[in-house]
Protein backbone atom coordinates (compact mmCIF):
# COMPACT_ATOMS: atom_id res chain seq x y z
CA UNK A 1 0.00 0.00 0.00
CA UNK A 2 2.95 2.36 0.65
CA UNK A 3 4.40 1.91 -2.83
CA UNK A 4 2.23 4.62 -4.32
CA UNK A 5 3.42 7.63 -2.25
CA UNK A 6 7.07 6.43 -2.31
CA UNK A 7 6.96 6.16 -6.09
CA UNK A 8 5.47 9.60 -6.36
CA UNK A 9 8.23 10.96 -4.05
CA UNK A 10 10.88 9.36 -6.26
CA UNK A 11 9.24 10.82 -9.30
CA UNK A 12 9.20 14.26 -7.65
CA UNK A 13 12.91 13.91 -6.79
CA UNK A 14 13.66 12.83 -10.34
CA UNK A 15 11.77 15.74 -11.81
CA UNK A 16 13.80 18.10 -9.61
CA UNK A 17 17.04 16.63 -10.89
CA UNK A 18 16.12 16.54 -14.58
CA UNK A 19 15.02 19.98 -15.74
CA UNK A 20 12.03 19.84 -18.02
CA UNK A 21 12.79 21.03 -21.54
CA UNK A 22 11.35 24.50 -22.19
CA UNK A 23 8.18 24.21 -24.15
CA UNK A 24 8.10 26.05 -27.44
CA UNK A 25 5.28 28.56 -27.86
CA UNK A 26 2.29 26.94 -29.49
CA UNK A 27 2.04 27.92 -33.14
CA UNK A 28 -1.51 27.52 -34.42
CA UNK A 29 -1.68 24.86 -37.12
CA UNK A 30 -2.78 25.83 -40.56
CA UNK A 31 -6.37 24.68 -41.10
CA UNK A 32 -6.54 21.41 -42.98
CA UNK A 33 -8.18 21.61 -46.37
CA UNK A 34 -11.01 19.19 -45.58
CA UNK A 35 -14.24 19.46 -47.58
CA UNK A 36 -13.22 22.86 -48.94
CA UNK A 37 -15.13 22.42 -52.18
CA UNK A 38 -18.37 24.28 -51.48
CA UNK A 39 -21.48 23.32 -53.40
CA UNK A 40 -22.52 26.88 -53.80
CA UNK A 41 -21.93 30.45 -52.62
CA UNK A 42 -22.39 30.92 -48.86
CA UNK A 43 -21.24 34.51 -48.34
CA UNK A 44 -18.44 34.11 -45.77
CA UNK A 45 -16.42 36.67 -47.71
CA UNK A 46 -18.91 39.42 -46.78
CA UNK A 47 -17.54 39.46 -43.23
CA UNK A 48 -14.83 41.86 -44.41
CA UNK A 49 -17.45 44.26 -45.74
CA UNK A 50 -19.48 43.94 -42.50
CA UNK A 51 -16.38 44.81 -40.45
CA UNK A 52 -15.61 47.73 -42.77
CA UNK A 53 -19.13 49.15 -42.34
CA UNK A 54 -18.96 48.88 -38.55
CA UNK A 55 -15.55 50.52 -38.25
CA UNK A 56 -16.54 53.25 -40.74
CA UNK A 57 -19.48 54.14 -38.50
CA UNK A 58 -17.41 54.36 -35.33
CA UNK A 59 -14.41 56.06 -36.96
CA UNK A 60 -10.81 55.86 -35.77
CA UNK A 61 -8.69 57.48 -33.08
CA UNK A 62 -5.06 58.32 -33.68
CA UNK A 63 -2.93 60.23 -31.18
CA UNK A 64 0.49 61.42 -32.31
CA UNK A 65 3.05 63.15 -30.08
CA UNK A 66 5.90 65.33 -31.33
CA UNK A 67 8.99 65.85 -29.18
CA UNK A 68 12.16 67.83 -29.83
CA UNK A 69 13.82 71.20 -29.35
CA UNK A 70 12.00 74.25 -30.69
CA UNK A 71 12.94 75.35 -34.17
CA UNK A 72 13.22 71.83 -35.63
CA UNK A 73 9.99 72.15 -37.63
CA UNK A 74 7.79 69.83 -35.56
CA UNK A 75 4.56 71.73 -36.18
CA UNK A 76 5.30 72.14 -39.89
CA UNK A 77 6.04 68.44 -40.30
CA UNK A 78 2.78 67.38 -38.65
CA UNK A 79 0.86 69.80 -40.90
CA UNK A 80 2.67 68.30 -43.91
CA UNK A 81 1.94 64.76 -42.73
CA UNK A 82 -1.82 65.35 -42.67
CA UNK A 83 -1.88 68.04 -45.40
CA UNK A 84 -3.88 70.35 -43.16
CA UNK A 85 -3.38 72.85 -40.36
CA UNK A 86 -3.45 70.45 -37.42
CA UNK A 87 -0.55 71.55 -35.23
CA UNK A 88 -0.49 73.75 -32.16
CA UNK A 89 1.34 76.57 -34.01
CA UNK A 90 -1.21 76.71 -36.82
CA UNK A 91 -4.13 76.68 -34.35
CA UNK A 92 -3.78 80.26 -33.16
CA UNK A 93 -0.58 79.91 -31.12
CA UNK A 94 0.97 83.27 -30.27
CA UNK A 95 4.46 83.28 -31.81
CA UNK A 96 5.72 86.01 -29.48
CA UNK A 97 5.08 83.79 -26.48
CA UNK A 98 8.26 82.94 -24.60
CA UNK A 99 9.72 79.45 -24.32
CA UNK A 100 8.00 77.75 -21.37
CA UNK A 101 10.12 77.42 -18.23
CA UNK A 102 9.31 73.71 -18.01
CA UNK A 103 7.95 71.19 -20.47
CA UNK A 104 4.27 71.71 -21.17
CA UNK A 105 1.91 69.31 -22.86
CA UNK A 106 -0.56 70.73 -25.35
CA UNK A 107 -3.06 68.45 -27.09
CA UNK A 108 -5.16 69.58 -30.02
CA UNK A 109 -7.95 67.41 -31.46
CA UNK A 110 -9.27 67.42 -35.03
CA UNK A 111 -11.60 65.30 -37.07
CA UNK A 112 -10.15 64.56 -40.50
CA UNK A 113 -12.25 62.92 -43.18
CA UNK A 114 -11.01 61.31 -46.40
CA UNK A 115 -12.90 58.98 -48.71
CA UNK A 116 -15.71 58.60 -46.17
CA UNK A 117 -13.27 57.54 -43.42
CA UNK A 118 -13.34 59.70 -40.30
CA UNK A 119 -10.30 59.91 -38.07
CA UNK A 120 -10.19 61.72 -34.76
CA UNK A 121 -6.63 62.97 -34.79
CA UNK A 122 -4.99 64.37 -31.67
CA UNK A 123 -1.63 66.12 -31.99
CA UNK A 124 0.24 66.32 -28.68
CA UNK A 125 2.98 68.93 -28.61
CA UNK A 126 5.65 69.33 -25.94
CA UNK A 127 6.83 72.98 -26.00
CA UNK A 128 9.85 73.68 -23.79
CA UNK A 129 11.45 70.24 -24.24
CA UNK A 130 15.24 70.52 -24.43
CA UNK A 131 15.21 74.33 -24.58
CA UNK A 132 16.58 75.10 -21.11
CA UNK A 133 20.19 75.37 -19.97
CA UNK A 134 19.59 72.50 -17.54
CA UNK A 135 17.48 69.84 -19.24
CA UNK A 136 17.77 67.30 -16.43
CA UNK A 137 14.74 64.98 -16.24
CA UNK A 138 12.81 67.08 -18.78
CA UNK A 139 11.25 63.87 -20.14
CA UNK A 140 9.43 63.27 -16.82
CA UNK A 141 6.32 65.39 -17.63
CA UNK A 142 6.06 63.56 -20.96
CA UNK A 143 6.34 60.12 -19.34
CA UNK A 144 3.80 61.23 -16.72
CA UNK A 145 1.36 62.36 -19.43
CA UNK A 146 1.67 59.05 -21.34
CA UNK A 147 1.08 57.02 -18.15
CA UNK A 148 -1.86 59.25 -17.18
CA UNK A 149 -3.58 58.32 -20.45
CA UNK A 150 -3.04 54.61 -19.71
CA UNK A 151 -4.44 55.17 -16.20
CA UNK A 152 -7.49 56.96 -17.59
CA UNK A 153 -8.17 54.06 -19.97
CA UNK A 154 -7.65 51.47 -17.21
CA UNK A 155 -10.09 53.23 -14.85
CA UNK A 156 -12.75 53.22 -17.57
CA UNK A 157 -12.03 49.57 -18.31
CA UNK A 158 -12.45 48.32 -14.73
CA UNK A 159 -15.74 50.16 -14.15
CA UNK A 160 -18.61 47.79 -13.39
CA UNK A 161 -20.84 49.40 -16.02
CA UNK A 162 -18.26 50.34 -18.59
CA UNK A 163 -18.77 52.24 -21.80
CA UNK A 164 -19.23 50.28 -24.98
CA UNK A 165 -16.45 52.29 -26.54
CA UNK A 166 -13.85 53.76 -24.18
CA UNK A 167 -12.45 57.10 -25.42
CA UNK A 168 -8.85 56.41 -26.46
CA UNK A 169 -6.41 59.17 -25.49
CA UNK A 170 -3.36 56.88 -25.31
CA UNK A 171 -0.33 58.06 -27.29
CA UNK A 172 0.00 55.72 -30.27
CA UNK A 173 3.12 57.23 -31.77
CA UNK A 174 5.88 59.61 -30.66
CA UNK A 175 7.90 61.34 -33.37
CA UNK A 176 11.25 62.23 -31.82
CA UNK A 177 13.07 65.02 -33.68
CA UNK A 178 16.86 64.75 -33.87
CA UNK A 179 18.83 67.90 -34.62
CA UNK A 180 20.70 67.64 -37.98
CA UNK A 181 24.15 68.19 -36.46
CA UNK A 182 25.88 65.55 -38.59
CA UNK A 183 27.88 64.46 -35.52
CA UNK A 184 26.14 62.23 -32.99
CA UNK A 185 23.11 62.09 -30.73
CA UNK A 186 23.13 64.36 -27.72
CA UNK A 187 22.95 62.85 -24.21
CA UNK A 188 19.44 64.35 -23.97
CA UNK A 189 18.28 62.36 -27.04
CA UNK A 190 19.67 59.12 -25.64
CA UNK A 191 18.21 59.69 -22.17
CA UNK A 192 14.76 60.52 -23.55
CA UNK A 193 14.62 57.50 -25.82
CA UNK A 194 16.00 55.17 -23.12
CA UNK A 195 13.27 56.19 -20.68
CA UNK A 196 10.36 56.50 -23.11
CA UNK A 197 10.96 53.58 -25.51
CA UNK A 198 9.56 51.26 -22.80
CA UNK A 199 6.21 53.08 -22.63
CA UNK A 200 5.52 54.43 -26.13
CA UNK A 201 6.26 53.74 -29.82
CA UNK A 202 9.15 56.06 -30.69
CA UNK A 203 9.91 56.88 -34.32
CA UNK A 204 13.16 58.88 -34.60
CA UNK A 205 13.32 61.48 -37.39
CA UNK A 206 16.20 63.72 -38.46
CA UNK A 207 14.66 67.17 -38.82
CA UNK A 208 15.52 69.78 -41.47
CA UNK A 209 17.49 67.24 -43.50
CA UNK A 210 17.98 69.83 -46.29
CA UNK A 211 20.77 71.37 -44.16
CA UNK A 212 23.00 68.33 -44.86
CA UNK A 213 24.64 67.06 -48.02
CA UNK A 214 23.69 63.58 -49.26
CA UNK A 215 26.96 62.09 -47.93
CA UNK A 216 26.52 63.77 -44.54
CA UNK A 217 22.93 62.55 -44.36
CA UNK A 218 23.84 58.91 -45.11
CA UNK A 219 26.73 58.99 -42.62
CA UNK A 220 24.63 60.64 -39.90
CA UNK A 221 21.81 58.10 -40.32
CA UNK A 222 24.27 55.22 -39.93
CA UNK A 223 25.84 56.82 -36.87
CA UNK A 224 22.45 57.39 -35.22
CA UNK A 225 21.44 53.77 -35.87
CA UNK A 226 24.72 52.55 -34.38
CA UNK A 227 24.34 54.73 -31.27
CA UNK A 228 20.77 53.55 -30.68
CA UNK A 229 21.94 49.94 -31.00
CA UNK A 230 24.94 50.41 -28.66
CA UNK A 231 22.70 52.05 -26.05
CA UNK A 232 20.11 49.26 -26.34
CA UNK A 233 17.34 51.64 -27.44
CA UNK A 234 14.44 49.92 -29.19
CA UNK A 235 12.47 52.17 -31.53
CA UNK A 236 9.32 51.27 -33.45
CA UNK A 237 8.94 48.76 -35.16
CA UNK A 238 10.48 46.71 -32.31
CA UNK A 239 12.16 43.44 -33.34
CA UNK A 240 10.48 41.27 -30.73
CA UNK A 241 6.97 42.24 -31.86
CA UNK A 242 7.32 41.05 -35.46
CA UNK A 243 4.55 38.49 -35.78
CA UNK A 244 5.68 36.49 -38.79
CA UNK A 245 8.39 36.21 -41.42
CA UNK A 246 6.67 38.65 -43.77
CA UNK A 247 6.50 41.31 -41.03
CA UNK A 248 10.11 40.62 -40.04
CA UNK A 249 11.40 41.00 -43.62
CA UNK A 250 9.44 44.23 -44.17
CA UNK A 251 10.39 45.74 -40.79
CA UNK A 252 14.05 44.71 -41.03
CA UNK A 253 14.28 46.66 -44.29
CA UNK A 254 12.79 49.73 -42.54
CA UNK A 255 15.06 49.35 -39.49
CA UNK A 256 18.26 48.84 -41.49
CA UNK A 257 17.70 51.24 -44.38
CA UNK A 258 15.11 53.93 -43.65
CA UNK A 259 15.39 54.64 -39.92
CA UNK A 260 15.79 57.36 -38.76
CA UNK A 261 13.86 59.13 -41.51
CA UNK A 262 15.68 62.27 -42.73
CA UNK A 263 12.80 64.63 -43.45
CA UNK A 264 11.91 68.12 -44.62
CA UNK A 265 8.50 69.58 -43.84
CA UNK A 266 6.60 72.35 -45.62
CA UNK A 267 3.02 73.49 -45.81
CA UNK A 268 3.65 75.91 -48.71
CA UNK A 269 2.79 75.03 -52.29
CA UNK A 270 4.86 75.94 -55.35
CA UNK A 271 4.49 75.45 -59.09
CA UNK A 272 7.04 72.97 -60.50
CA UNK A 273 6.78 71.88 -64.17
CA UNK A 274 3.10 72.82 -64.23
CA UNK A 275 2.34 70.84 -61.05
CA UNK A 276 1.60 72.18 -57.59
CA UNK A 277 3.95 70.64 -55.03
CA UNK A 278 4.62 71.08 -51.31
CA UNK A 279 8.13 72.42 -50.96
CA UNK A 280 10.71 74.85 -49.63
CA UNK A 281 12.02 77.60 -51.86
CA UNK A 282 15.78 78.26 -51.80
CA UNK A 283 17.91 80.55 -54.00
CA UNK A 284 19.04 77.49 -56.01
CA UNK A 285 15.70 75.77 -56.49
CA UNK A 286 12.73 74.19 -54.77
CA UNK A 287 13.09 71.28 -52.38
CA UNK A 288 10.08 69.08 -53.05
CA UNK A 289 8.91 67.53 -49.81
CA UNK A 290 7.22 64.52 -51.41
CA UNK A 291 10.02 63.80 -53.89
CA UNK A 292 12.12 60.84 -52.65
CA UNK A 293 15.19 62.22 -54.44
CA UNK A 294 14.97 65.31 -52.23
CA UNK A 295 14.06 63.84 -48.82
CA UNK A 296 12.45 60.88 -47.06
CA UNK A 297 9.23 62.56 -46.02
CA UNK A 298 7.16 60.34 -48.35
CA UNK A 299 8.69 57.23 -46.72
CA UNK A 300 7.79 58.50 -43.25
CA UNK A 301 4.24 59.35 -44.30
CA UNK A 302 3.70 55.96 -45.96
CA UNK A 303 5.16 54.21 -42.91
CA UNK A 304 3.14 56.06 -40.24
CA UNK A 305 -0.16 56.37 -42.11
CA UNK A 306 -0.39 54.00 -45.06
CA UNK A 307 1.23 50.80 -43.78
CA UNK A 308 1.71 50.85 -39.98
CA UNK A 309 -1.01 53.07 -38.48
CA UNK A 310 -3.15 50.13 -37.33
CA UNK A 311 -0.06 48.30 -36.06
CA UNK A 312 1.02 51.36 -34.04
CA UNK A 313 -2.39 51.28 -32.34
CA UNK A 314 -2.21 47.53 -31.74
CA UNK A 315 1.32 47.62 -30.25
CA UNK A 316 0.19 50.48 -27.98
CA UNK A 317 -2.82 48.47 -26.78
CA UNK A 318 -1.35 44.96 -26.63
CA UNK A 319 2.17 45.74 -25.43
CA UNK A 320 2.64 49.16 -23.81
CA UNK A 321 -0.82 49.48 -22.25
CA UNK A 322 -0.86 45.80 -21.27
CA UNK A 323 2.52 46.20 -19.50
CA UNK A 324 1.24 49.27 -17.64
CA UNK A 325 -2.02 47.51 -16.75
CA UNK A 326 -0.32 44.34 -15.45
CA UNK A 327 2.11 46.37 -13.29
CA UNK A 328 -0.66 48.63 -11.98
CA UNK A 329 -2.96 45.75 -11.01
CA UNK A 330 -0.07 43.77 -9.54
CA UNK A 331 1.13 46.66 -7.36
CA UNK A 332 -2.40 47.24 -6.22
CA UNK A 333 -3.31 43.62 -5.57
CA UNK A 334 -6.12 43.73 -8.09
CA UNK A 335 -8.15 46.79 -9.04
CA UNK A 336 -7.12 50.46 -8.99
CA UNK A 337 -8.21 52.23 -5.80
CA UNK A 338 -11.76 53.46 -5.75
CA UNK A 339 -11.89 57.23 -5.56
CA UNK A 340 -14.98 59.18 -4.52
CA UNK A 341 -15.34 60.21 -8.17
CA UNK A 342 -15.37 56.63 -9.48
CA UNK A 343 -17.80 55.56 -6.75
CA UNK A 344 -20.19 58.32 -7.80
CA UNK A 345 -19.81 57.23 -11.43
CA UNK A 346 -20.70 53.66 -10.47
CA UNK A 347 -23.80 54.80 -8.60
CA UNK A 348 -24.90 56.95 -11.52
CA UNK A 349 -24.20 54.11 -13.96
CA UNK A 350 -26.21 51.67 -11.83
From TrEMBL:
Gene3D superfamilies: P-loop containing nucleotide triphosphate hydrolases. SUPFAM superfamilies: P-loop containing nucleoside triphosphate hydrolases. The gene is Sept3. Residues 1-23, 328-350 are annotated as: Disordered. Belongs to the TRAFAC class TrmE-Era-EngA-EngB-Septin-like GTPase superfamily. Septin GTPase family. It holds the Pfam family Septin. Residues 58-331 form the Septin-type G domain. Keywords: Cytoplasm, GTP-binding, Nucleotide-binding. It is found in: Cytoplasm. One of its GO terms (molecular function) is GTP binding. It comes from Molothrus ater. It comes from the Eukaryota. GO terms for cellular component: cytoplasm. This is Neuronal-specific septin-3. PROSITE patterns: G_SEPTIN.
Amino acid sequence: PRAGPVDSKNEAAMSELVPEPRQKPVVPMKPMGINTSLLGYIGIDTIIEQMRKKTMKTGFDFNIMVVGQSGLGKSTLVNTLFKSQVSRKSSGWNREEKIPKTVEIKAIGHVIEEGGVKMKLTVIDTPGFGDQINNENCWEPIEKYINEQYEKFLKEEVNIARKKRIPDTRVHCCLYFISPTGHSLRPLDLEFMKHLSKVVNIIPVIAKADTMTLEEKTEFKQRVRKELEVNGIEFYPQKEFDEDLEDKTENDKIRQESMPFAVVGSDKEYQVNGKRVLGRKTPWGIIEVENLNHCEFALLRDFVIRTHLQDLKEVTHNIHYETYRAKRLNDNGGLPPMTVETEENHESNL
